[in-house]
Protein backbone atom coordinates (compact mmCIF):
# COMPACT_ATOMS: atom_id res chain seq x y z
CA UNK A 1 0.00 0.00 0.00
CA UNK A 2 1.22 3.49 -0.86
CA UNK A 3 2.52 5.55 2.06
CA UNK A 4 0.42 8.68 2.31
CA UNK A 5 3.04 10.64 4.12
CA UNK A 6 4.84 11.79 1.01
CA UNK A 7 8.16 13.26 2.13
CA UNK A 8 9.32 13.81 -1.44
CA UNK A 9 6.44 16.30 -1.80
CA UNK A 10 5.62 17.36 1.75
CA UNK A 11 9.22 18.14 2.72
CA UNK A 12 10.43 19.40 -0.66
CA UNK A 13 12.58 22.53 -0.31
CA UNK A 14 10.46 25.64 -0.80
CA UNK A 15 12.25 26.78 -3.98
CA UNK A 16 11.40 23.43 -5.55
CA UNK A 17 7.75 23.70 -4.51
CA UNK A 18 7.60 27.13 -6.07
CA UNK A 19 9.21 25.82 -9.27
CA UNK A 20 6.62 23.01 -9.37
CA UNK A 21 3.84 25.56 -8.88
CA UNK A 22 5.22 27.74 -11.69
CA UNK A 23 5.22 24.83 -14.07
CA UNK A 24 1.74 23.61 -13.10
CA UNK A 25 0.24 27.10 -13.09
CA UNK A 26 1.38 27.90 -16.63
CA UNK A 27 -0.18 24.66 -17.90
CA UNK A 28 -3.35 25.12 -15.86
CA UNK A 29 -4.01 28.66 -17.07
CA UNK A 30 -3.66 27.54 -20.67
CA UNK A 31 -5.94 24.56 -19.98
CA UNK A 32 -8.61 26.64 -18.30
CA UNK A 33 -8.48 29.35 -21.00
CA UNK A 34 -8.93 26.74 -23.70
CA UNK A 35 -11.70 24.80 -21.95
CA UNK A 36 -13.90 27.28 -20.07
CA UNK A 37 -15.68 30.03 -21.93
CA UNK A 38 -16.26 31.99 -18.73
CA UNK A 39 -12.52 32.27 -18.01
CA UNK A 40 -11.68 33.08 -21.61
CA UNK A 41 -14.14 35.99 -21.53
CA UNK A 42 -12.92 37.18 -18.12
CA UNK A 43 -9.27 37.08 -19.12
CA UNK A 44 -9.96 38.75 -22.46
CA UNK A 45 -11.87 41.49 -20.64
CA UNK A 46 -8.95 41.96 -18.24
CA UNK A 47 -6.51 42.04 -21.19
CA UNK A 48 -4.57 38.99 -19.92
CA UNK A 49 -3.50 36.26 -22.32
CA UNK A 50 -2.45 32.78 -21.13
CA UNK A 51 1.13 33.47 -22.28
CA UNK A 52 1.28 36.47 -19.91
CA UNK A 53 1.28 34.00 -17.01
CA UNK A 54 4.82 32.64 -16.84
CA UNK A 55 4.79 31.66 -13.18
CA UNK A 56 3.41 32.51 -9.76
CA UNK A 57 4.91 36.00 -10.00
CA UNK A 58 2.24 36.73 -12.67
CA UNK A 59 -0.68 35.27 -10.72
CA UNK A 60 -1.84 38.74 -9.63
CA UNK A 61 -2.62 39.58 -13.26
CA UNK A 62 -5.50 37.10 -13.35
CA UNK A 63 -8.99 38.30 -12.40
CA UNK A 64 -10.56 36.98 -9.20
CA UNK A 65 -13.49 34.62 -9.15
CA UNK A 66 -16.13 34.78 -6.43
CA UNK A 67 -18.97 32.70 -5.06
CA UNK A 68 -21.39 34.93 -6.97
CA UNK A 69 -19.65 33.95 -10.22
CA UNK A 70 -20.06 30.30 -9.25
CA UNK A 71 -23.74 30.82 -8.55
CA UNK A 72 -24.23 32.67 -11.85
CA UNK A 73 -22.55 29.82 -13.72
CA UNK A 74 -24.64 27.14 -11.97
CA UNK A 75 -24.64 24.30 -12.84
CA UNK A 76 -22.31 23.71 -15.80
CA UNK A 77 -20.79 27.09 -16.66
CA UNK A 78 -17.36 26.37 -15.16
CA UNK A 79 -17.04 22.78 -16.21
CA UNK A 80 -13.74 22.19 -18.05
CA UNK A 81 -14.32 18.60 -19.19
CA UNK A 82 -17.22 16.90 -20.98
CA UNK A 83 -19.86 15.83 -18.45
CA UNK A 84 -19.25 12.15 -19.20
CA UNK A 85 -15.74 12.46 -17.71
CA UNK A 86 -17.20 13.54 -14.35
CA UNK A 87 -17.88 10.88 -11.77
CA UNK A 88 -19.12 12.88 -8.75
CA UNK A 89 -20.63 16.13 -7.61
CA UNK A 90 -20.54 17.66 -4.14
CA UNK A 91 -22.32 20.82 -3.11
CA UNK A 92 -22.31 23.60 -0.56
CA UNK A 93 -25.21 23.90 1.83
CA UNK A 94 -26.61 26.92 0.02
CA UNK A 95 -27.95 28.65 3.11
CA UNK A 96 -27.19 32.09 1.69
CA UNK A 97 -28.36 31.64 -1.88
CA UNK A 98 -28.14 29.27 -4.79
CA UNK A 99 -26.14 26.15 -4.16
CA UNK A 100 -22.68 25.82 -5.63
CA UNK A 101 -22.07 22.48 -7.31
CA UNK A 102 -18.51 21.21 -7.75
CA UNK A 103 -17.65 18.44 -10.23
CA UNK A 104 -14.90 15.83 -10.01
CA UNK A 105 -13.22 13.52 -12.52
CA UNK A 106 -11.87 10.20 -11.25
CA UNK A 107 -8.42 11.83 -11.06
CA UNK A 108 -9.78 14.84 -9.14
CA UNK A 109 -11.31 12.48 -6.58
CA UNK A 110 -8.02 10.66 -6.25
CA UNK A 111 -6.13 13.86 -5.52
CA UNK A 112 -8.74 15.05 -3.03
CA UNK A 113 -8.73 11.73 -1.17
CA UNK A 114 -4.95 11.76 -1.21
CA UNK A 115 -4.96 15.17 0.50
CA UNK A 116 -7.30 13.74 3.15
CA UNK A 117 -5.05 10.70 3.50
CA UNK A 118 -2.09 13.00 4.13
CA UNK A 119 -4.15 14.73 6.84
CA UNK A 120 -4.96 11.42 8.55
CA UNK A 121 -1.32 10.37 8.43
CA UNK A 122 -0.26 13.76 9.84
CA UNK A 123 -2.59 13.05 12.77
CA UNK A 124 -0.77 9.75 13.38
CA UNK A 125 -3.09 7.52 11.33
CA UNK A 126 -1.91 4.17 9.94
CA UNK A 127 -3.61 1.08 8.57
CA UNK A 128 -3.91 -0.18 12.14
CA UNK A 129 -6.39 2.57 12.97
CA UNK A 130 -10.17 2.57 13.19
CA UNK A 131 -11.31 5.83 11.66
CA UNK A 132 -14.72 6.98 12.87
CA UNK A 133 -16.15 9.48 10.41
CA UNK A 134 -19.13 11.42 11.70
CA UNK A 135 -18.99 14.35 9.34
CA UNK A 136 -22.18 14.43 7.29
CA UNK A 137 -22.22 12.20 4.20
CA UNK A 138 -24.01 13.16 1.03
CA UNK A 139 -23.56 16.47 -0.74
CA UNK A 140 -21.38 17.84 2.08
CA UNK A 141 -17.71 17.08 1.42
CA UNK A 142 -16.77 16.22 5.03
CA UNK A 143 -17.95 12.58 5.13
CA UNK A 144 -16.96 11.52 1.60
CA UNK A 145 -13.57 13.30 1.81
CA UNK A 146 -12.36 11.78 5.08
CA UNK A 147 -13.92 8.45 4.12
CA UNK A 148 -11.85 8.36 0.93
CA UNK A 149 -8.72 9.45 2.77
CA UNK A 150 -9.23 6.80 5.41
CA UNK A 151 -9.56 4.09 2.75
CA UNK A 152 -6.35 5.24 1.11
CA UNK A 153 -4.47 5.04 4.42
CA UNK A 154 -5.96 1.59 4.94
CA UNK A 155 -7.76 2.34 8.22
CA UNK A 156 -10.87 0.41 9.10
CA UNK A 157 -13.40 3.09 8.15
CA UNK A 158 -16.66 3.63 10.06
CA UNK A 159 -18.94 5.72 7.80
CA UNK A 160 -21.13 6.89 10.69
CA UNK A 161 -22.31 10.23 9.30
CA UNK A 162 -23.57 12.77 11.83
CA UNK A 163 -26.15 12.51 14.62
CA UNK A 164 -27.45 9.74 16.85
CA UNK A 165 -24.97 10.21 19.66
CA UNK A 166 -25.95 6.94 21.38
CA UNK A 167 -25.08 4.94 18.28
CA UNK A 168 -21.83 6.88 17.80
CA UNK A 169 -20.72 6.04 21.33
CA UNK A 170 -21.73 2.43 21.01
CA UNK A 171 -19.73 1.87 17.82
CA UNK A 172 -16.86 3.87 19.24
CA UNK A 173 -16.56 1.55 22.22
CA UNK A 174 -17.56 -1.74 20.50
CA UNK A 175 -15.22 -1.28 17.54
CA UNK A 176 -12.47 0.60 19.33
CA UNK A 177 -12.41 3.75 17.21
CA UNK A 178 -9.00 5.41 17.40
CA UNK A 179 -9.44 8.44 15.14
CA UNK A 180 -12.52 10.65 15.25
CA UNK A 181 -13.43 12.90 12.31
CA UNK A 182 -16.25 15.46 12.77
CA UNK A 183 -16.92 19.14 13.28
CA UNK A 184 -15.37 20.54 16.47
CA UNK A 185 -18.82 21.43 17.77
CA UNK A 186 -19.97 17.83 17.39
CA UNK A 187 -16.74 16.63 19.00
CA UNK A 188 -17.57 18.89 21.96
CA UNK A 189 -21.06 17.38 22.13
CA UNK A 190 -19.65 13.87 22.06
CA UNK A 191 -17.18 14.91 24.77
CA UNK A 192 -20.07 16.15 26.87
CA UNK A 193 -21.97 12.87 26.38
CA UNK A 194 -18.87 10.85 27.28
CA UNK A 195 -18.40 12.87 30.48
CA UNK A 196 -22.06 12.48 31.46
CA UNK A 197 -21.85 8.72 31.06
CA UNK A 198 -18.41 8.51 32.69
CA UNK A 199 -17.16 6.40 29.82
CA UNK A 200 -13.88 8.11 28.93
CA UNK A 201 -11.96 5.03 30.09
CA UNK A 202 -13.81 2.82 27.63
CA UNK A 203 -12.61 4.84 24.63
CA UNK A 204 -9.57 3.99 22.53
CA UNK A 205 -9.55 7.31 20.72
CA UNK A 206 -6.12 8.89 20.25
CA UNK A 207 -6.69 11.65 17.70
CA UNK A 208 -9.44 13.81 16.23
CA UNK A 209 -9.49 15.59 12.88
CA UNK A 210 -11.85 18.50 13.26
CA UNK A 211 -12.76 21.26 10.85
CA UNK A 212 -15.46 22.76 8.62
CA UNK A 213 -16.04 25.63 11.04
CA UNK A 214 -13.95 28.04 13.11
CA UNK A 215 -12.88 26.88 16.57
CA UNK A 216 -10.61 28.31 19.19
CA UNK A 217 -7.57 27.05 21.06
CA UNK A 218 -9.65 26.90 24.23
CA UNK A 219 -12.14 24.65 22.50
CA UNK A 220 -9.27 22.43 21.37
CA UNK A 221 -8.04 22.08 24.94
CA UNK A 222 -11.46 21.24 26.23
CA UNK A 223 -12.11 18.58 23.53
CA UNK A 224 -8.66 17.08 24.07
CA UNK A 225 -9.38 16.79 27.74
CA UNK A 226 -12.90 15.37 27.57
CA UNK A 227 -12.08 12.80 24.88
CA UNK A 228 -8.48 12.11 25.92
CA UNK A 229 -7.10 12.78 22.42
CA UNK A 230 -4.89 15.11 20.42
CA UNK A 231 -7.14 17.35 18.29
CA UNK A 232 -5.98 18.36 14.81
CA UNK A 233 -7.47 21.10 12.68
CA UNK A 234 -8.36 20.49 9.03
CA UNK A 235 -9.53 23.05 6.51
CA UNK A 236 -11.08 23.02 3.09
CA UNK A 237 -14.01 24.17 1.03
CA UNK A 238 -16.29 22.52 -1.48
CA UNK A 239 -15.32 24.86 -4.31
CA UNK A 240 -11.63 23.92 -4.01
CA UNK A 241 -12.31 20.18 -3.43
CA UNK A 242 -13.34 19.74 0.22
CA UNK A 243 -11.44 18.93 3.42
CA UNK A 244 -7.68 18.45 3.13
CA UNK A 245 -6.76 21.67 1.33
CA UNK A 246 -4.71 22.19 4.49
CA UNK A 247 -4.26 20.34 7.77
CA UNK A 248 -2.26 20.35 10.96
CA UNK A 249 0.75 18.23 11.79
CA UNK A 250 1.79 17.16 15.30
CA UNK A 251 2.99 20.70 16.05
CA UNK A 252 -0.64 21.96 15.99
CA UNK A 253 0.69 25.33 14.90
CA UNK A 254 -1.15 26.17 11.70
CA UNK A 255 -2.30 24.06 8.79
CA UNK A 256 0.06 23.06 5.97
CA UNK A 257 -1.51 23.97 2.62
CA UNK A 258 -1.06 21.24 0.01
CA UNK A 259 1.01 23.45 -2.24
CA UNK A 260 1.55 20.88 -4.95
CA UNK A 261 -2.19 21.27 -5.69
CA UNK A 262 -3.23 24.71 -4.45
CA UNK A 263 -1.51 28.10 -4.59
CA UNK A 264 -2.60 30.39 -1.76
CA UNK A 265 -2.51 34.18 -1.70
CA UNK A 266 -3.60 36.64 0.97
CA UNK A 267 -5.29 39.78 -0.31
CA UNK A 268 -6.76 42.92 1.15
CA UNK A 269 -10.50 42.14 0.99
CA UNK A 270 -11.34 45.76 0.17
CA UNK A 271 -8.76 46.56 -2.53
CA UNK A 272 -7.84 43.08 -3.81
CA UNK A 273 -4.16 43.95 -3.41
CA UNK A 274 -1.86 41.02 -2.55
CA UNK A 275 -0.52 41.35 1.01
CA UNK A 276 2.93 40.31 2.21
CA UNK A 277 3.44 37.13 4.25
CA UNK A 278 2.39 37.52 7.87
CA UNK A 279 -0.47 39.96 7.28
CA UNK A 280 -4.07 39.01 7.92
CA UNK A 281 -6.29 39.18 4.86
CA UNK A 282 -8.60 37.14 2.66
CA UNK A 283 -7.37 33.78 1.51
CA UNK A 284 -7.44 33.17 -2.25
CA UNK A 285 -6.76 29.81 -3.90
CA UNK A 286 -5.71 28.76 -7.36
CA UNK A 287 -6.07 25.06 -8.16
CA UNK A 288 -3.20 23.79 -10.31
CA UNK A 289 -4.11 20.14 -10.75
CA UNK A 290 -7.90 20.03 -10.91
CA UNK A 291 -9.48 18.97 -14.16
CA UNK A 292 -13.29 19.17 -13.93
CA UNK A 293 -13.81 22.32 -11.87
CA UNK A 294 -10.52 24.21 -11.87
CA UNK A 295 -10.80 27.54 -10.09
CA UNK A 296 -8.25 30.29 -10.59
CA UNK A 297 -7.86 32.95 -7.89
CA UNK A 298 -10.99 31.98 -5.98
CA UNK A 299 -11.82 34.34 -3.12
CA UNK A 300 -12.66 32.20 -0.10
CA UNK A 301 -13.81 35.09 2.16
CA UNK A 302 -11.86 33.40 4.97
CA UNK A 303 -9.56 35.72 6.85
CA UNK A 304 -6.21 34.41 7.98
CA UNK A 305 -2.47 34.73 7.57
CA UNK A 306 0.23 32.58 6.02
CA UNK A 307 3.63 31.72 7.42
CA UNK A 308 6.62 30.12 5.76
CA UNK A 309 8.48 29.77 9.06
CA UNK A 310 10.17 26.41 9.39
CA UNK A 311 7.98 23.76 11.01
CA UNK A 312 9.69 21.18 13.17
CA UNK A 313 7.60 18.36 11.65
CA UNK A 314 9.79 18.71 8.56
CA UNK A 315 6.94 19.63 6.22
CA UNK A 316 7.85 22.63 4.11
CA UNK A 317 4.41 23.53 2.78
CA UNK A 318 3.27 26.98 3.84
CA UNK A 319 1.00 27.11 6.90
CA UNK A 320 -2.23 29.06 7.31
CA UNK A 321 -3.16 29.98 10.83
CA UNK A 322 -6.66 29.22 12.09
CA UNK A 323 -9.09 31.37 10.09
CA UNK A 324 -9.99 34.38 12.19
CA UNK A 325 -13.46 34.45 10.68
CA UNK A 326 -14.91 35.33 7.34
CA UNK A 327 -14.86 38.70 5.70
CA UNK A 328 -18.58 38.15 5.08
CA UNK A 329 -19.30 36.69 8.57
CA UNK A 330 -17.90 39.68 10.30
CA UNK A 331 -20.79 41.52 11.89
CA UNK A 332 -20.86 45.24 12.27
CA UNK A 333 -22.72 45.87 15.50
CA UNK A 334 -23.09 49.35 16.92
CA UNK A 335 -20.52 50.40 14.31
CA UNK A 336 -17.91 47.95 15.57
CA UNK A 337 -16.49 44.92 13.75
CA UNK A 338 -17.34 41.79 15.68
CA UNK A 339 -16.24 38.23 14.90
CA UNK A 340 -18.00 35.36 16.67
CA UNK A 341 -14.56 33.87 17.44
CA UNK A 342 -13.75 36.88 19.66
CA UNK A 343 -16.89 36.25 21.71
CA UNK A 344 -16.12 32.55 21.94
CA UNK A 345 -12.60 33.25 23.19
CA UNK A 346 -13.99 35.35 26.09
CA UNK A 347 -16.53 32.67 27.03
CA UNK A 348 -14.09 29.78 26.92
CA UNK A 349 -11.53 31.77 28.87
CA UNK A 350 -14.08 32.09 31.65
CA UNK A 351 -14.60 28.34 31.79
CA UNK A 352 -17.74 27.98 29.65
CA UNK A 353 -18.07 25.39 26.89
CA UNK A 354 -18.76 26.43 23.31
CA UNK A 355 -22.51 26.14 23.86
CA UNK A 356 -23.61 29.65 23.08
CA UNK A 357 -25.62 31.72 20.64
CA UNK A 358 -25.23 35.30 19.52
CA UNK A 359 -28.44 37.15 18.67
CA UNK A 360 -28.17 40.42 16.84
CA UNK A 361 -31.17 42.63 16.23
CA UNK A 362 -32.03 46.21 15.33
CA UNK A 363 -34.68 48.19 17.13
CA UNK A 364 -35.31 51.49 15.41
CA UNK A 365 -31.81 52.62 14.46
CA UNK A 366 -30.11 50.91 17.35
CA UNK A 367 -28.34 47.59 17.17
CA UNK A 368 -28.67 45.16 20.00
CA UNK A 369 -26.48 42.14 20.63
CA UNK A 370 -27.16 39.41 23.09
CA UNK A 371 -25.01 36.43 23.97
CA UNK A 372 -26.70 33.42 25.53
CA UNK A 373 -24.31 30.94 27.07
CA UNK A 374 -24.93 27.74 28.96
CA UNK A 375 -23.46 27.09 32.37
CA UNK A 376 -21.50 23.88 32.65
CA UNK A 377 -23.16 21.30 34.95
CA UNK A 378 -20.54 22.13 37.65
CA UNK A 379 -21.39 25.84 37.44
CA UNK A 380 -25.10 25.06 37.73
CA UNK A 381 -24.45 23.16 40.94
CA UNK A 382 -22.21 25.82 42.44
CA UNK A 383 -24.56 28.07 44.43
CA UNK A 384 -21.81 30.31 45.74
CA UNK A 385 -21.68 32.33 42.51
CA UNK A 386 -25.04 33.85 41.52
CA UNK A 387 -25.95 33.93 37.83
CA UNK A 388 -26.05 37.73 37.85
CA UNK A 389 -22.43 37.81 38.94
CA UNK A 390 -21.43 35.44 36.15
CA UNK A 391 -23.25 37.58 33.62
CA UNK A 392 -21.55 40.72 34.85
CA UNK A 393 -18.14 39.14 34.47
CA UNK A 394 -18.86 38.10 30.87
CA UNK A 395 -20.23 41.57 30.03
CA UNK A 396 -17.00 43.05 31.30
CA UNK A 397 -14.82 40.52 29.39
CA UNK A 398 -16.72 41.22 26.18
CA UNK A 399 -16.50 44.96 26.72
CA UNK A 400 -12.72 44.84 26.90
CA UNK A 401 -12.50 42.48 23.89
CA UNK A 402 -14.97 44.29 21.61
CA UNK A 403 -15.28 47.76 23.03
CA UNK A 404 -19.10 47.58 23.13
CA UNK A 405 -21.67 46.52 25.69
CA UNK A 406 -23.25 43.15 25.01
CA UNK A 407 -26.33 41.80 26.82
CA UNK A 408 -25.50 38.47 28.37
CA UNK A 409 -27.78 35.69 29.57
CA UNK A 410 -26.27 32.75 31.37
CA UNK A 411 -28.70 29.88 30.87
CA UNK A 412 -29.18 26.36 32.21
CA UNK A 413 -27.06 23.47 30.86
CA UNK A 414 -28.50 21.85 27.69
CA UNK A 415 -30.88 24.70 26.92
CA UNK A 416 -29.15 25.75 23.68
CA UNK A 417 -29.84 23.47 20.68
CA UNK A 418 -26.91 21.14 19.86
CA UNK A 419 -25.51 20.78 16.37
CA UNK A 420 -24.63 17.57 14.58
CA UNK A 421 -22.74 19.32 11.82
CA UNK A 422 -21.69 22.92 11.61
CA UNK A 423 -22.98 24.86 14.62
CA UNK A 424 -25.37 27.79 14.21
CA UNK A 425 -23.76 30.37 16.45
CA UNK A 426 -25.17 33.60 15.10
CA UNK A 427 -28.77 34.62 14.58
CA UNK A 428 -28.67 37.99 12.88
CA UNK A 429 -32.27 39.10 12.78
CA UNK A 430 -31.32 42.28 10.94
CA UNK A 431 -31.01 40.28 7.69
CA UNK A 432 -34.59 39.12 8.02
CA UNK A 433 -36.04 42.58 7.47
O1 LIG B 1 -16.55 22.70 5.37
C1 LIG B 1 -15.13 21.31 4.00
C2 LIG B 1 -14.61 20.65 5.21
C3 LIG B 1 -15.21 19.49 5.68
C4 LIG B 1 -13.49 21.14 5.86
C5 LIG B 1 -14.69 18.83 6.78
C6 LIG B 1 -12.97 20.49 6.97
C7 LIG B 1 -13.57 19.32 7.43
P1 LIG B 1 -17.83 23.99 2.98
O2 LIG B 1 -19.07 23.45 3.55
O3 LIG B 1 -17.82 24.40 1.55
O4 LIG B 1 -16.65 22.95 3.10
O5 LIG B 1 -17.40 25.22 3.91
C8 LIG B 1 -16.18 25.86 3.68
O6 LIG B 1 -16.00 26.36 6.05
O7 LIG B 1 -14.62 28.58 3.62
C9 LIG B 1 -14.46 28.15 6.02
O8 LIG B 1 -15.19 29.33 6.18
C10 LIG B 1 -15.09 27.06 6.88
N1 LIG B 1 -14.05 26.13 7.36
C11 LIG B 1 -13.70 24.95 6.87
N2 LIG B 1 -12.72 24.38 7.63
C12 LIG B 1 -12.43 25.26 8.62
C13 LIG B 1 -11.52 25.28 9.72
C14 LIG B 1 -16.17 22.38 4.25
N3 LIG B 1 -10.71 24.27 9.98
C15 LIG B 1 -15.99 26.93 4.73
N4 LIG B 1 -11.51 26.38 10.49
C16 LIG B 1 -14.63 27.60 4.62
C17 LIG B 1 -12.32 27.43 10.24
C18 LIG B 1 -13.26 26.39 8.43
N5 LIG B 1 -13.21 27.46 9.25
Write the SSE topology.
Layout: H1 7-10, H2 14-35, H3 37-46, H4 67-72, E1 86-91, E2 101-105, H5 106-122, E3 130-133, H6 142-153, E4 156-159, H7 165-174, E5 179-182, H8 184-197, E6 207-211, H9 217-227, E7 230-237, E8 242-248, E9 255-257, E10 262-267, E11 281-287, E12 298-304, E13 306-307, E14 319-320, E15 325-326, E16 331-333, E17 336-338, H10 340-349, E18 356-363, E19 366-374, H11 377-381, H12 387-402, E20 407-411, E21 426-428
Parallel strand pairs: 3-4, 3-5, 5-6, 6-7, 18-21, 19-20
Antiparallel strand pairs: 1-2, 7-8, 8-9, 9-14, 10-11, 11-12, 12-15, 13-14, 16-17, 18-19
Helix pairs in contact: 2-3, 5-6, 8-9, 10-12
Bound molecules: 5'-O-[hydroxy(phenylacetyl)phosphoryl]adenosine (DLL).
5'-O-[hydroxy(phenylacetyl)phosphoryl]adenosine is lined by residues 92, 135, 141-142, 211-214, 233-238, 242-243, 300, 302, 322-323, 326.
